[in-house]
Amino acid sequence: MPALPDAASPLKLGLSMLCENPYRKTGLSTMFPEFVARALELFPDIEWLVFAGPDQDWPVPHARVRVDRQFPSNENLLRRLTADHFHVPVAARAAGAAALLTTGFVPMRKCLPTVLHVFSLQHLDPANRIGFARRTYRKAVMKRSWTKADLVITNSRFAADQIRSAVPALADKLVQSYEGLQHDQFHTRAGPNETERLRHRFAVTPGYFLWVSNFYPYKQAELLLDGYARLPQSIRRSHPLVMAGGWSEFRDVCNARVQQLGIADDVNFLGWIDDEWVAPLYRHALAFCLSSREETFGRCVIEAMACGAPCVVNDIPIMREVTDGAASVVNFREPDRVAAALAQLAAEPDARAALVQKGLARARQFTFERLATERITAIRKLLDSRKPAARA
Among 18, 239, 258, 333, which is most exposed with the fewest C-beta within 10 angstroms? Predict the structure, then answer.
């Protein structure tokens, strides 16, 4: 871990969480609170001003955190965009923030240094099918405002390369900092009666193949279904496919594919699940599967590895980077190869055990302490470079 910088004068940072919908949790709902919590521990001179919606959860109560709830979050999209672009920067400056941390945009009314987090680049490829309105907005914001960022933070080398290619002017402002992992939540230690609780809550028993993700088109859940359907029925009956995740319009497409493939008896759609069930589901899976065609990191993979689930991931550059030899990497557009990878984990305990050990070792490399240290250090370096030189 990089050495901590010396404590300096108190530093207040503004952070907008308004881009999150409080009723649809994503990785950012975890990442930013953990970032703030670790920064508070590691940097005693840091204060935070967090902009969160009236109904948005903020799980880090602290004397050095003030939560401003006067603006709407992303369940009110147009009002949120107006607030983030015009009102939040003014409020942050008035409250004494030295910089504002945002996700995916630089405010149109920029009135203090802006630290831009970039975690989503799906709009660069129309094949990801994120929707016309969302893609148009993200392209427009990238073109109009990204070059105005004072610092850009992204979560992988792959994403950093994409950003440099799409917006060359950002190259000198770019910091790559990997995601962190909640090791107190994602681990191999099962809770009391955990398998019985899973059976009672979800009607599942250990030994299933697991999917945990939103059902966006670019996640390519249908490719996992195609590969799973190639397994012999005996394997499917012993090792059903459990799919946890939301947004029903896309899940319904997958449900139709399940019916077409004739595997309805072997696939269990759980829908949205509460946080308390995520790690137990990982722990008792035969394998975790991610068929996504596009990610900037893929935190669910390191979560699964930390819980002792071997991973089968799509053969894309980011998955090779994040798993670093600790997962089975396969082209999900080749269903026979997918089926072979799944069958191997079902039939060869030694192969499975080897992936488990590699995954545990890889997951230990990702911590929120490292994330907070890297990002706060970069922010402080930016702000220090803006200070006027001391007079002789």
Answer: 333
